[in-house]
Design goal:
Helix content is about 20%, strand content about 30%. The chain has 9 helices and 20 strands. The strands form 4 sheets. A 6-stranded antiparallel beta barrel has the order 1-2-3-6-5-4. Helix 1 crosses helix 2. This is HtrA2 peptidase. It comes from Thauera aminoaromatica S2.
Length: about 375
């Protein structure tokens, strides 16, 4: 009996040792010996398409993303050659020095607005570029040339030549954007690749921000970051409603306050540049400022509506028509002038050569002066 017990104890000890060794060195052998649990998974039928979830903006993004491009710019810096570089003794000790500084590069976004290859972007994206390359969302890359630019709205038009089957974004049938509408911002922030962010229209008609001469921005809380400039702001149907152009930020990143140029302005600039290579605006040659309640009281006016003529350029259309400093423009061709910003936009919209009636207040008098509109001088940055 004692012998049987010893044999049993030895067998158990050996079995435990074998299990320990297998579990340590070859645990998969033990797992194979245990039947695996089977999980029942229901799969969609082969070939079936996924339907967007309720409230999803995937269709709008998919419709507009192919038309948004990445823009890469480069500029070769060339500094003045130092006289010592021509000295043989200097070159002997210090070697040859390059004639030019390293090239600078930049990135931004753009929107293909026509199958013919026209691309809308921001002027500040390409204003210093010597070479421009456009990369499509499908991986194709093309060289692009500048057709024209308008620094006063910060817009520029490029063209991709020789490309086929270019996707173009859709323009809305009417300008019906409202505060609270959902919008998507599409671009290439920080160069990470095409990115879509969502937000709402926070405000319309933002101006007096000091960004450009002509300001009428869409404000949105959709995240816009460096690299998004020139990209598309689209509505829930995927139609272009604005060109992303600026952010309010203390750190350089998005704080939920971004600005886009409305599609109505972008379309007008696009059509003028494609037709003539430049943007033509009206001009009368006056300096204007806000008519504050204090200024209105000093001039003897009861209300502060209109634009105060602070200065008149000698020989300008306004000077020839008899406009004087101190006059207050209250109407232009019968349309009321609310403030200096409205006057600037109204005059710019007039065609050079047109005769417009300026209704001004001069003391207690109301005068109608006929002004032959001139052409707004081209800013040096656009030449």
């Amino acid at each position: 009996m004692r012998r049987l017990w010893l044999i049993f104890a030895q067998a158990v000890t050996v079995s435990v040792a074998v299990l320990f060794v297998l579990n340590t060195l070859k645990p998969e052998w033990l797992r194979k010996a245990t039947p695996a649990a089977v999980v029942a998974i229901l799969e969609a039928p082969a070939g079936s398409e996924r339907s967007p979830a309720a409230g999803s903006y995937a269709p709008a993004a998919q419709r507009s993303m192919p038309a948004v491009v990445h823009i890469f710019t480069s500029k070769g810096g060339r500094g003045q050659r130092h006289p010592l570089l021509d000295d043989p003794l200097f070159r002997h000790f210090f070697g040859e020095r390059p004639d030019s500084a390293p090239s600078e590069s930049g990135l931004g976004s753009g929107v293909i607005v026509s199958p013919d290859g026209y691309v809308l972007t921001n002027n500040h994206v390409i204003e210093t570029a010597d070479a421009i390359e456009v990369a499509l969302n499908d991986g194709r890359k093309f060289a692009a040339r500048l057709v024209g630019r308008d620094p006063e709205t910060d817009l520029a038009v490029l063209r991709i030549d020789g490309a086929e089957a270019l996707p173009a974004i859709t323009f809305p049938a009417a300008d019906s954007l409202a505060v609270g509408d959902v919008v998507l911002a599409i671009g290439n922030p920080f160069g990470v690749g095409q990115t879509v962010t969502m937000g709402i229209v926070s405000a319309l008609g933002r101006s007096q921000l000091g960004i450009n001469t002509f300001e009428n921005y869409i404000q949105t809380d959709a995240a816009i970051n460096p690299g998004n400039s020139g990209g598309a702001l689209v509505d829930s149907a995927g139609s272009l409603v604005g060109i992303n152009t600026a952010i309010y930020s203390r750190s350089g990143g998005s704080l939920g306050i971004g600005f886009a140029i409305p599609v109505s302005i972008a379309r007008d600039v696009l059509e003028q540049i494609v037709a003539t290579g430049e943007v033509v605006r009206g001009w009368v040659g006056v300096e204007i400022q806000d008519l504050t309640p204090e200024l209105a009281a000093s001039f003897g006016y009861r209300d502060a509506g209109g634009a105060l003529i602070a200065g008149v350029l000698r020989g300008s259309p306004a000077d020839r028509a008899g406009v004087r400093p101190g006059d207050v423009l209250v109407a232009l061709d019968g349309e009321s002038v609310r403030d200096p910003r409205a006057m600037l936009d109204m005059v710019a919209a007039l065609s050079p050569g047109k005769r417009a009636v300026f209704r001004v207040r001069r003391g207690a008098e109301a005068l109608d002066l006929e002004v032959e509109v001139g052409r707004r001088p081209i800013p040096p940055a656009a030449r």
